[in-house]
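chain below, 99 aa
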Amino acid sequence: MRFAEMAGALGWKPKLTYTVAEVVHATGIPATTVRDEISRGNLKARVIGAKKLVVLPEWVDEWLALREGGEPAPSERECLAQLLEEVRQLREDIRWMRR
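prediction:
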């Protein structure tokens, strides 16, 4: 079931963004799990204003699909770390070739 349908089943009007509390309420997944998944980069979220964390329904759909399908996608941090390692290796290869 898509997140928009979950929200509709609760009688909520469609919105562009939802709070973490609303995601927790609609999905039944504990708040600590939702926040951990946001921290890991598995569930996308954005800060609005000073500190309000919001999630798009599409992002929740993607995240729920990952949870059901098995392995979560690598976080942005993991992808950047891998890319940085590849750049370092290329730089070493270039230095070696110049010798």
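The chain has a mean pLDDT of 89. The chain has one domain: 3-73.
thats it, cya
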